[in-house]
Design brief:
Strand order of the largest sheet: 3-2-1-4-5-6-13
Helix content: 40-55%
Strand content: 15-25%
Structural class: alpha/beta
Number of strands: 14
């Protein structure tokens, strides 16, 4: 289907939610209205959309509005037919996202989201991959803090290694050096829902923990084991590390990218993620503290009544988040250490806003624009940020979204 004839280039689905509103603000600030990008906002409530349009900065009065329902296929098909690409911010995606993916696939409409739900992504791939290839729809999950910095950081470092040494790194370790800003309410809701699904179905539990569960069929084995679960010393950085809460999705996205790109990183490529906690005794104690905290979260998530209590009483709910000052004070700083024989190559990815909201909203905004406007090398199917958009998205993120990708001498 020729998406060039659509009324809009991009539609932001879930624009009245907390993150959706940030995406709309970003697109308005960066691309304006009635210029090179034709875009609209969409949600189920016309009244709330009109209120959002009034509350946005000057110039939003003519911003087009579309309405649909998450579980109404007819309205979602009508929406998908109007645009070249959909940016979806409505999660948990396992609860609210399936019908929209189906509509985009059926209508040859490109799609990106913030999903970190491995079990749901696996289901979407298995159910709609063939149809997406036929319709030409590019479907790209995980276009926020999970997993763009990880996926494109590895892509960036491997490209540098190939140019410098003639071959990619055989192993890359990602380390979160520092960040300020918490996970979004929607991310937390998605994690809790995944825990509930995994407890109810052992097959889903296996998908969540298996290192290669997002790889294409018959390519779901490799050298990597399960993600780090306790303190580990990193000799290259002379520091202790602790488990990183997003590793369970990021590592799988990176491995899927490798497979989709014809194993450009090598069939024996290894990848892992962790948080730096410092050197010496203090660094080790902090790593133990982080490990214990994550263990507590997993325990709470495994007990039905406790999971419900945490979700309803103690954690931010979907639609809630930090204020503007908190978002602008946030940041992230991530290091990638690549191993190539006896050589080391390092890269750094940084973001200028809090990872869960401010930076994520810019990352998914640019992903949607990239899918809609850029001449990409791939056709329809289920892709990752690196395998679908690669350098084009890196260029957009550096030019517009406050991310920086830099190569460092070890």
């Amino acid at each position: 289907m020729n998406t060039g004839e659509r009324e809009y280039d991009v539609v932001v689905w879930g624009a009245t939610g907390f993150t959706g509103r940030l995406v709309a603000e970003y697109l308005l600030q960066t691309y304006g209205l009635n210029r090179d990008l034709r875009w609209a906002i969409a949600a189920r409530s016309q009244t709330r959309l009109e209120q959002l349009r009034r509350e946005l900065v000057d110039g939003a009065g003519e911003l087009p509005i579309l309405t649909a329902e998450s579980h109404d296929s007819a309205s979602l098909n009508a929406l998908a037919q109007k645009t070249r690409a959909v940016i979806s911010t409505v999660g948990p995606y396992a609860l609210y996202g399936t019908e929209l993916v189906e509509a985009c696939v059926a209508n040859g409409t490109h799609y990106c989201d913030l999903a970190g739900e491995v079990q749901w992504m696996r289901k979407m791939i298995d159910r709609y991959e063939s149809a997406a290839k036929e319709s030409g729809a590019r479907i790209v999950h995980a276009c926020g803090f999970d997993s763009i910095p990880s996926d494109l950081g590895v892509y960036f470092l491997q490209d540098a290694a190939t140019q410098r040494f003639g071959k990619p790194c055989s192993q890359i370790r990602m380390r979160v050096k520092a960040m300020r800003g918490g996970a979004s309410g929607g991310t937390i809701a998605s994690m809790l829902n995944a825990m509930a699904e995994g407890k109810a179905d052992r097959n889903i539990a296996r998908i969540i923990v298996s290192p290669y569960s997002l790889n294409p069929e018959n390519e779901q084995q490799g050298p990597d084991q399960r993600d780090q679960t306790g303190p580990v010393y990193d000799p290259d950085l002379d520091a202790w590390t602790a488990p990183f809460v997003m590793a369970g999705i990021n590592t799988k996205i990176v491995r899927r990218s490798n497979a989709l790109m014809g194993f450009d990183y090598g069939r024996n490529f290894r990848y892992e993620e962790a948080m730096l906690t410092g050197d010496g005794l203090w660094g080790r104690l902090k790593a133990l503290q982080v490990t214990a905290g994550l263990g507590g979260v997993m325990l709470m998530g495994s007990i039905d009544w406790l999971r419900s209590l945490v979700a309803n009483k103690l954690l931010p709910k979907p639609g809630e988040g930090p204020d503007r000052e908190q978002r602008e004070k946030g940041f992230f700083n991530i290091i990638f250490v690549g191993c190539l024989d006896d050589r080391r190559l390092r890269a750094r990815v940084t973001g200028d806003r809090d990872p869960g909201y401010g930076s994520t909203s810019k990352m998914i905004g640019e992903s949607g624009v990239c899918l809609a406007l850029d001449d990409l090398d791939v056709g329809g199917g289920f892709w990752t940020p690196a395998s679908a958009m690669g350098k084009r998205l890196i260029d957009r993120l550096q030019a517009n979204a406050g991310l920086q990708f830099t190569l460092e001498e070890d």
